[in-house]
Amino acid sequence: MNLIVFDLEWNIGWQPWTFRYQGAELTLRGEIIQIGAARINERGDVLDTFEVNLKPRIFRKLQKHIAQVTGLSQGDLDAGLPMREGLRRFVEWAGPDAELAEWGMDDVPVLKQNLFLVGLDEQWPARWYDLQRIFLQSYPRQEGEGMTLKSVVERLGIPQDEPFHNALDDALYTVKICRQLPLWDGLAAYPTDDELLVEALNPSSGAVDIQIFNGLMDHDAYKNDPTLSRVACPVCGKPLAHDEVWLKRGNTGYYTMSRCAVCGPWFTRFKLSRRDGLCWNFARCTEPVTPETEARWNKQRSAAIERMKRKAEKAAQE
């Protein structure tokens, strides 16, 4: 395995900046200004490192709070490598078979967006890992414990010889955490993207017809795209008719009541993910309706309709 532990620092603007990707409008999460990375072996030995400052093209003025956190100056950005050249060097250094590991899940989506914007292959890397997930398997989170890199370094008693929020130093701190983990076992057992999405869907024990739909650009495809929204009754196979109201469940979960003319009601549930910062992936399942869940649905549906009504009235007044 060609494992690269990496960290990014990025700049943002005063206003959101959008771009077109495969016909959809996306919001840029941040423009990379620093990359730090370490190639490691199965023992956590550092085989090689990479570090570069980048000159942003979009958010050219360094945000004050980012300067305070990172210690970078406007001069550092202005003297950085051109964005495309710096990203190209990182991709070439890491290699086409690189598997990236990061502390959290924020950096790869930013990396892929930035690769696309400079005309490099945003499909790279094909595989990446959230090291927090592997860490929590060995060190379950206790009440009051943070999961920032600094808080975990302190919890493990790792010497803090370098400042945080420097990309290479943060990558090396992450490597030191990896040395206290059964890292290779955790990577070998790491779920695929589809498995992570089903896990996030958290289907009930009675759920059936669990399916994955990858690479869509429309957030509302769960109700607009027949490929996703066309659902058959799990008992008789006849098409289910969805209620016009979809209720939200969590940050990116949606469900509705779907009726079979022969067998009665079911719930259709979706969980959405845009883990790569570019495309939406969907997990779908069908779940049986119980008297308790039907009563909850009716109550929440009525409340949702009332909210929509008040919103429409307010818009009409304005």
Structure description:
- The chain is of the alpha+beta class.
- The chain has two domains: 187 residues, Ribonuclease H-like superfamily/Ribonuclease H (Nucleotidyltransferase, domain 5); 125 residues, no CATH class.
- The strands form three sheets. It has a six-stranded mixed β-sheet with strand order 6-5-4-1-7-8, sandwiched between helices.
- The longest helix has 27 residues.
- The model has no long low-confidence stretch (mean pLDDT 96).
Q: What's the structural domain tally? A: 2
Q: SSE order, as H and E?
A: EEEEEHHEHEHEHHHHHEHHEEEEEH
CATH superfamily of the largest domain: Ribonuclease H-like superfamily/Ribonuclease H
Count of runs of 4 or more consecutive helical residues: 12
Structure summary, number of beta strands: 14
Strand content: 25-35%
**Radius of gyration from the CA trace?**
23 Å
Major beta-sheet overview: 6 strands, mixed
**What is the name of the CATH class of the largest domain?**
Alpha Beta
Mean pLDDT: 96
Q: Under CATH, the topology of the largest domain is which?
A: Nucleotidyltransferase, domain 5
Q: How widely separated are the two ends?
A: 59 Å
Give the helix proportion (percent range).
Answer: 25-40%
